[in-house]
Write a structure and sequence with these properties.
Helix content: 40-55%
Structural class: alpha+beta
Number of helices: 8
Order of helices and strands: EEEHHHHHHHHEEE
Largest sheet: 3 strands, antiparallel
Shape: flat
Number of strands: 6
Distance between the termini: 52 Å
Strand content: 5-15%
C-alpha cells in the first residue's frame, strides 16, 4: 500500500491514492522505527478507508511518551521544548485517562482552570500541543476522531515588542560579564534570535563585507552587521 523513502536522513511514507502519490513525512529515525511508523500509517489509512473504528485504550500518560519521541525526532529543538513544557500540565489533567475518554468538555475544563493560573498564550500552547497529539492519535489508529477540533484558542491582545533605550543598552553592557558582553553586542547589532546565535560559527562571519550568515532552522539567510 505504501513504500518508504529516505532523503538526507529523513524518512517519508509514499502512498498511492487514486493513481496519485501522497508523501507523508515520518522524520529522522532508524529504518526499523521508520518501518514501524509506516505500519501504523498504513493501518490508520485502511481503517479510515473502510470506516473501521477500533479505538485502543492506551492511557494518555503512555501515549505522551510516544508523542514526545515523535516530537523530538521531527520538530525543531524549540518546538520540542515547548511540547515538553506543555506536556507536564497536560499530564496533570489527562494523564490517568485513556485516549477515548478525553472529551471536548474535559479539554474546556482544562482551559478554564489554566487561564486562572497562567497567561492566555501559555494556555494556547498547551491546547495546540494537545490538538496535535490527538490528531496523531487518530492518524496512528488509537482513536477514531479528535475532540480537540471543536476547542477554540483564547483571544488576547499581543503586546508590541519594547526596544531598549540607549541608556538601557549602556547599562546592560557595563554590567555584563566578559564572556557575555561580546554575545550581547552581536545580538544588539544584528537583531539575530537566540536560536540563530547558538548556531553561529566563526566561519559564518564575513569581516570584509561586514555580513553574517544566519543559519536559521528553516530558511537560512544573511543579515548585515
Amino acid at each position: 500500500m505504501a513504500s518508504l523513502y529516505q532523503d538526507k536522513g529523513v524518512w517519508f511514507a509514499i502512498f498511492t491514492v487514486n493513481y496519485k502519490q501522497k508523501w507523508v513525512k515520518i522524520g529522522k529515525m532508524s529504518k526499523t522505527s521508520a518501518k514501524e511508523a509506516l505500519r501504523k500509517l498504513e493501518e490508520g489509512y485502511a481503517k479510515k478507508k473502510f470506516s473501521i473504528i477500533d479505538e485502543k485504550h492506551i492511557y494518555f500518560e503512555e501515549f505522551a511518551k510516544e508523542y514526545l519521541k515523535f516530537s523530538k525526532a521531527t520538530k525543531a529543538p524549540g518546538s520540542y521544548r515547548r511540547d515538553t513544557t506543555s506536556m507536564k500540565r497536560l499530564l496533570d489533567s489527562f494523564g490517568s485517562l485513556t485516549l477515548p475518554r478525553i472529551t471536548s468538555r474535559l479539554i474546556e475544563e482544562h482551559k478554564i482552570r489554566r487561564v486562572n493560573e497562567v497567561s492566555p498564550r501559555t494556555v494556547n500552547l498547551e491546547l495546540l500541543c494537545l490538538s496535535n497529539m490527538l490528531s496523531k492519535a487518530v492518524e496512528w489508529g488509537y482513536i477514531s476522531d479528535s475532540p480537540s477540533k471543536v476547542i477554540k484558542l483564547l483571544r488576547y491582545e499581543k503586546k508590541p515588542p519594547r526596544f531598549l533605550t540607549n541608556e538601557e543598552i549602556k547599562r546592560l553592557l557595563q554590567n555584563s560579564s566578559p564572556w557575555l558582553k561580546p554575545i550581547i553586542t552581536v545580538m544588539l547589532n544584528t537583531g539575530i534570535r537566540e536560536s540563530e546565535r547558538r548556531q553561529l560559527k566563526f566561519k559564518d562571519i564575513d569581516f570584509k563585507n561586514r555580513r553574517i550568515l544566519v543559519r536559521a532552522c528553516q530558511a537560512p539567510g544573511k543579515r548585515s552587521m
